[in-house]
Every structure is written in structure tokens, then in C-alpha cells.
Amino acid sequence: MSMMHASSHADTGLASRTTPPDTARLMRWVLLAMLPGIGVMTWHFGIGVLTNIIFSGLLGMGLEALMLRLRKRSIRPVLSDHSALLSGVLLGVSLPPASPWWLIGVGMIAAVVIAKHLYGGLGHNPFNPAMVGYALLLVSFPTQMTLWSPPTGMGEDVFATLRQFMGMMSATELDALSGATPLDAFKHKGEALMASEFWAANPLPPGTLLAWQHVALAWLAGGILLLYKRIISWHIPLAMLGSMLALATLLYAGDPSHHGSPAFHLFTSGAMLGAFFIATDPVSAATSRKGKLIYGAAIGLLVILLRTYGAYPDAVAFSVLLMNLAAPLLDYYSDPRPLGHSAPTRGYQLPPEDRS
Amino acid sequence: MARAFEFPGGIHPPERKTSSTSVPLSAASLPSRVVLPLKQHSGNAALACVEPGQYVRTGECIARRDGMISADVHASISGHVSELTDTQITIEGDGCDEWLLMPVLDWRTTDSRILRERLDESGVVGLGGAGFPTHIKARVRERHALDTLIVNAAECEPYITADDMTLRTFALDVLEGAQLMAHLAGAKRILIGIEDNKPEAIAILSQALSHSIPLPVELKVIATRYPSGGERQLIKKLLDREVPSGGLPADVGVLCHNPGTLLAALQAVRDGTPLVSRILTLTGEALARPANVIARLGTSIGALLQTAGLEEKRLFRLIQGGPMMGAILESLELPVTKATNCLIAATQEELPPSPPEQPCIRCGACEEVCPAALLPQQLHWYARAEQDERLSRYHLFDCIECGACSYVCPSHIPLVEDYRNAKQRIRYQRLETAKAEHARHRFEFRQARLAREEAEKQARREARRNAGRRATPASSPAAGQADLQGLRIAQVAAKAAVKKAEKALARTAQQDPHQDLSDLETQVATARENLEAAEARLASARAETASDTPQTDKGAS
Q1: N or C: which end of chain A has fewer CB within 10 A?
Q2: Looking at residues B91-117, what average pLDDT do you find?
Q3: What ipTM score was computed for the predicted complex, to two decimals?
Q4: Type and span of the H or E element at A212
Q5: Same domain assignment for residues B535 and B454
Q6: Does B284 share its domain with B419?
């Protein structure tokens, strides 16, 4: 029986950086690492980003408390693990800035109530809760989900943002205020238009591309912090970004006139957020190191394939959910080779000759 | 060192070893009373062979081993047996410490069989904590070809410094003990595996190396990383050999011994002293004077800790063994046993209770540190769900219970406890399913015993009749010869059956120290009965032929 624990000793020295802290501290670190991304997003897209995050975060905790109460579990210790807050913040940054409250509400109910607690709470959810919420909203409310405000910065009308959040803005007003994401615009450029012609026509509000790149770099910075603190392992993000880069390069090299450049795919989309903060959700990911590599790489491939050939502009949510489905299978086929065994075990059961 | 020589995983917990190594090793004062449990080793408890009130001298055998995997227990002080229960023997000392020594042996010139017998009757067991009888390990040569004896001085668990201090104080004796055990095992070389956090012991050992003969000894200093002292991990690290799953170090030609065990083995042979004392670490922040002491077995733990300056108010929990794999002791009244390598009197700040458990988030931290390259989180899942098929698919029984996974788990899940419970449950199920078979084995044992008694009776009858009928002609000398041949074959087969049963028992006992061994012990006993019966029949047949032979000669001439 182990009476020592990595998180409870001051003199752990080397161990303190090489072993993870407890679950709550882990979640706090992830939230902390999101701050640069949130900051840069707010800088470019206005305080609508903050209304999203604050409302979804609070709603996440409220729903978690409610569900715990309904499930007759003690609320305080579970709530203090910050996992519901994290789900909320992740959904908040994924939604278009200043999304209406009901949109966020529907997404958070799907995330916390259905995807998390109906499956048994933290640790038992097969799907990434925030991505379940996001995917549901994307297929149910495609109009609202693709209305990204242009990067007008923080100098915008606070009152308008609040009205937008309250859902009191008419459709025409909304249309005037928002545009499309670069991915969205590029996806719908039409077959006839060459990529070079598309970009030459300045299809996006000024500064959009740059804003998205800044945001992506901020997520990357947060991700590097998580890697440095060993909160997440490098396997999933590296595999995902690596496979995205490889496939995007291949497609771009084959036909640069109709495919986005690798840099476009990596830095003007949700790729960085997805790679470091979403695909790395350990609960719904594959668990072994080898499994994580396959899992990450498959998400990357799916993202590029769905972006190129699918109906929706971005595909991180769908790719992550699809691979969540495959994670148990990966776990059965990616065991390490245990010490003293000549080969790793594969599949559901031991081969008959090994059973004792 | 090359990557090939690395075992997977491992952790770096705080070492906390220095407080108990600042003072030299010393002998604890002679206790006035000792309590000696009959089971201080793995396997069967010993059977008491003294009466209440009987006077015993230090070193006198007070309980005999029962079955093959078991060990003798000796009086650790001289005095009178005051109490005798099913589990322990209490001796009230007379303060004289009157010794009963066995004859001194020189291992270089003594027959191996006598040396093995000496280890057997000295009650020497593995002193690293597991308590596996050393005389069984000394016989491993009968079944395996060995090339290397490893002195496991890694001592990777925090706090424990007993091996470190043993080596600093008795380096030459430990090396000679290693030569003795290597000689018995038929090994060709000796390797010492020691972690680099013991510079003093390393310096003393490297000085002593050149004096160690006849086998070459190599000192291998390895990086400190828990659990490098696990047998399988150490063998991988030193030799890049992997002990097969479910196998023993002997399967890859290696035998591992702890320094304390080697010292005890040497003392049993060279000095004729059975195992009546051991070196142990007294440490923890609730002690004013942490140290290593040589204590008589059976000494009260409470009394021993008092001499080290125990502050009972600050004592939060008492641990026997290390903080990673040891056990919490509920009482200060318990005695020091052969398995007590370390006592930690910890304060609450020092080893705080584990924070409340949270759900597993499958982060995989446990996988990264598992020194057997298992998937602890999957094991946890299926152990809680009691899905035993899955547990065997994830190799539950390859887990060495080192506690590295529990140490790093961010959700504070007592993983090793889960695994132990699951193993216990599965062992119990196996026992239940084997019950019918076990009953059959017991029946076979009874039959074998009756057959042996019958054979012996027959032999005695024959002998008497033979003595009386010297003159009667043999019915058929050829038939007698064929009979003898058949009996000889039967005897050899019975001998092989004993070997086989012993091998199965020794193997199981070493693979899984918690396994119930009574069924295998019965099978060994049955095989032995059969052998004795076969030998009795053979002997009487031989006697008959011998008495017949002169007559046959006469008839021929």
C-alpha cells in the first residue's frame, strides 16, 4: 500500500515537474493556459468572447451542481475539480462571439447534462462534452453558428454586444454585424474560383486573417505551457498537428488552386485549440501512448478530409467525436509490451494459450 | 547506459534516507522478553517443538518448519518459554544470553548437501521483507542452470537504509555470503546492483571487491529510480534479460539475494549461529534518534522505538517496510520479525493521509511510470468492475504492487489496493474451483501413506521370513530379476515425481508469495510417500534376491 503521494510532498524535487498534480490543479492549469488565447480573442473579436465564456462557464457549474443533486452525490468536492467550468469555457471559446444565451444554454445542457452526467459523470463520458454541445449546435443552428463577428477589436458597442447576447437582435442587424470565418469563406468560394483569385478579391473583412493567426499562436503558447508543465503529454497534439500538416501539404502540393495551404489549415482555424485543449481531454481519448499517437493522427487526418470534402467548414468537433468512438478500440490494439512478455497483447481477450 | 538496459517507467519519490544513516550501526539492548511468531516467512507456519516452562538457550530451535516452503524458528534469547499459542511463542529471558551454537563449517570444503541442510536448520529467509526460505533458493540448482548471482542492494524504497548500513559495516561478510550462495547455486559470477545514492557503501564495497574470491564480483552502480530494486527490474537493468511473465529469475539464469540474507547465510555456516537477529532501520520524524540497529527477533517494536526516542504524541502512523510497499502497523506491541526491515514512525505532516479519491480521468500518468509496462488505468477499471477475463488480458498478475501508479495518480486512487483485492479475489476463486481436485489430492496422499505403511510392513515381514528360510530354493531367479528391475524403475519414477512436485511448489511459492500452497504441499507429501514406499519395496526385493543368490549359485554348480 502506497503511503506516499506525489502531490502531498514538498520535497518531491524532480518529481514535482515530472508527475502531474491532482485533478483539480490539473484542470486549473488548463484553464490558466487558455488565458492567452482568450485574451487575444477578446482583443480581436470584442467582449462577446467574454460574455460567451462567462455565461457558459457559470452555466456549466450550475448544471453540474444540479445534476449532482439529482444524482444524490455530494456537490462540493466534485464541483471543485473545475471540470464543468473547463467544459463551459471550451464551448464558450468555440462559439461565435456574443452568441445568444439560448444557444449557449442548449449547448451546455447537451454537454454537461447529456454527454457527461447521463453517462455517469467525470471519467465515464465516452465523448468530449464540450464537443458534443458544439456539434449539436452546429447541426441544429447552422446560421447562428457561422456568424463570426469581424475583428473590430474591443472598441465596439458594448450595448450591441449585450443585446446580441440577450437574443434581442434582429436577423438583418446580425447579418450586418458579422461575417464568416476564413475557413468558411474559403470553403464556399465556389469551384470556378481559383484560390489565388479568391484571396486577391479580399473576401474577408480587413484584419481577419491576421486576427485568426494571432489567436492560433496564443493557443499554441498555452499548449506549450501545458506541455512544459507536463499537464498534457505531447503525443496527441503532435500527432494531430503532424498529420494535419502532412495531409494538407500533400493536397496543397497536388492542387494549390483549390486547397488551402498547410499554414492556412493550421493557423486560421480551430486546429491549435483543438490539438492542445480539446483532443487532449484524457477521459474521452485513447489511453496508451501508442493509442494516443494513433488517436491524434487520425483526428488530424479526419479534420483535413472533412474540411476538404465535408459539408461543414471546420471539422475539429466532428473529428474528435468520431475518434472518441474509436478510442476503446484503439485501447484494445495499442498495448505496450509488458516486461517479461515477448509481444504486446492485442484484442479483447488473451489468446487461449496464455490463459491460466 | 544503453537504452536496452532500462526497465520501463519508474518514479523519483523523496528519499529521506539520510536521517537514519548519520549514526553507525549498533546492537539494540538485549530484550528481557521476546515474542516469536511461528510464521515469519512465506509458506506454512512452523510447528512449535518446545513445551511451556521449558528452558531454551539462544539459537535453540523452538519451532520446526512444516512442509517444504516454511522455515525453522529459533529462540532469540535464553530463558523459559512462558507462553505457547497457535501463532507465537513467548520467552521470558534470564538475562544471561546463553548460546547454543551449531558446529562451525567451512563452506569451501564442506559438501553442498550439508551446507543446504545448515541453511535449512538455521531458519534463514530472505531479509528484504518477503521472507522466502533461503534453503529453497539454495536448491534452485537442481532445476535450473544458473550463471549469475545478483546481490540486490538497490534498496530503492524511501526511508529504508538497512542494506546500506549492512554493506557499510559488513561488506566483506556480505561478499563472502555471496560467494557461498553462488557456490551453492553453481553461478559463475556475482553482480552487485546498487543505487548511486549510497556513495559510502559503494566506496567500501569497491575496496572490498579485490578480497572476494573465488568468483569474479562486479559492482554495478545504477541511477536512483524507484523501483530499481524489484527483482525483474534489476535483472533487466543489470543484464538486459527479461524474466518471462509467470517465470522466475532462475529461468534466465539468475538468482537474487538481499545483502542481509547473504550475511545471515554466512553467519549460519561460518559461525554456526541461526537467524536470531536482524538489521533494521528505525526512522521517521516521530523519532528523536533515527538509526539502524541489530535487534533480536521478537523484540517489542514499541520498546525498540522508545530507545530511538519515540514521541508518541507526534506519531501519526507506524509503517513496517517502506512507504511505497510497506504495511501500516496498528499496534506498538507487535514484535520484530524476520520480515521487519524498516520501521517508520511518521508524523502527520510527514506522510499525510491520501486526499479523497476522485474519478479516474484516464490521464495515463500511471502508464508512464509502470515498471512492468502494464496499463494501470485499464486494470483499475476492470478491477472495480470485477471483470476477471479483462484483468487477465491486462496481465493483473504481472503487477509487482510497487505503488508507482498510486504515487502519481492525480485522482488519488488507491490503485494498488484495488489490484491486491482483485488478486485476492481471483486466488480465492481458483482455490474454490480447485477444491474438488484438492480433495482428490488429499485422498491420494492418504492412499499413498497407507500403501507406504503396507510396503514397509511387508518389507519387515519379508526380512523376518528371509532370515528364517535361508535354505528354501527360489521360485524363479529370472522372475526375481525382472521384479527387481521393475521396482528399480518404479523407484526412479517416484523420485522424479518428488522432484517434479517440489519444483511446482517452489516455483509457485516464488512467483506469488500470497498463493495458498497447501494443495501443492500435499502433492509433494504424496510423492514423498510414494517414493518411500517404492524404496521400501525395492529394498526388500533386493534383500530377497541377495538371500536367493547364493542358492541360485549353488543350484548352478
Answers
A1: C
A2: 92
A3: 0.82
A4: helix A208-228
A5: yes
A6: no
